[in-house]
Amino acid sequence: MRILHVSDCYLPRLGGIEVQVADLVRAQAAAGHEVEVATATPGEPLPGVHRVVAPMPFGLPVHPRGTRHLLRLMAARRPDVVHVHTGAVSPFAWMGVRAAVRARLPVVVTVHSMWDPVTRALYQGLDAIWGWSRWRVVSTAVSNAAARPIRAVVGGRVPVAVVSNGLDVSAWRPQGDPPPREHEGVHVVAVGRLAPRKQPVRLLKLLLRARRLVPRDVPMRATLVGDGPARGSMERYVRAHGMGDWVSLPGRYSREQIRALLASADVFVAPAPRESFGIAALEARAAGVPVVARAQSGVADFVRPGKEGLLGRSFDELVRSVALLARDGGLRASIALHNRETELTRCLWPSVLEGFEQAYALAARRRDAAGRGR
């Protein structure tokens, strides 16, 4: 099958969508498909990557004539399906949708983000203007939490399947005995972009509150990996509240460094309420680490309370969950053992590829039905 992926952002940019799309491309190519990518992200030439780039303020990944360029590319490459990847608002990706519809190609749109009320209102308004929900596309979301607001907008006019993000679980599984620990006590870890929408300063508040609920004779430290515009605010909060002796902000880590970090972790925290999936939390769960996350987020698709970790519907519940795991070594150990010994079948690449192939087949049927209706 010839597959053309369209995404505003792609390598060399590093983020959740960029990395996940690149991993999907590799997995599909390994499965024997012919896979190419169209992106508005500038960068060095890569095999099979078509960069539709224009000089834009702040390096924004968009092209003012993107639809025209993508139409030409689709006419030249004639893919069997166009797979578009969108965040909350992705102008270039939606140009890909319009181009594929005009070219009468099957279209699958994967939404990687959680639509908040403002985003839902935006898409409802665009639907009133363009009628995009009647374009015979097929949509997938990365979690049940991400699928619910999409279904509320499209009202059954667009099929919305849940296809999980993929993970090479074997790369994150702990091998052999755990490495010797350099520090005593409970090690809390979080990994993610330090952006305001992820509420990283609120994470520091959570840790400070949890620390006060844990006996002082239980040593506790936290490593918060990542970089982004909220880093300065976090550093100021750490200094203002005297957390520098037990909270570390080491910046961005490579995947290898994250794997090593998770080997020493006792608790992983993913506190953002609007987390559409939580690939870092999935990596932690695969590494055997108990996960604390919001019950409303996509993490709830692979973390059950008391099984793979603890879920909270409020900030206070998250605080109590972190404190409980810090105090209760037996609970931590039982969850960690369960995570190490239980497979994550729905997130394995064979399951993910099968889910997308079903979406591609449905998109082709909808395209054909639209053609017969003309």
Automatic annotation (TrEMBL):
Record bears the keyword Glycosyltransferase: yes
Residue ranges of every copy of the Glycosyl transferase family domain listed in the record: 187-336
Record key words, sorted: Glycosyltransferase, Transferase
One MF term in the entry's GO annotations: hexosyltransferase activity
Family matches, as Pfam families: Glyco_transf_4 (PF13439), Glycos_transf_1 (PF00534)
Location of the Glycosyltransferase subfamily 4-like N-terminal domain: 15-170
InterPro entries referenced in this protein's UniProt entry, alphabetically: Glyco_trans_1, Glyco_trans_4-like_N, Glycosyltransferase_grp1
Keyword Transferase included in the entry's annotation: yes
Top-level taxonomic group: Bacteria
One record GO biological process: carbohydrate derivative biosynthetic process
Name this protein carries in UniProt: Glycosyltransferase involved in cell wall biosynthesis
Species whose genome carries this gene: Sphaerisporangium krabiense
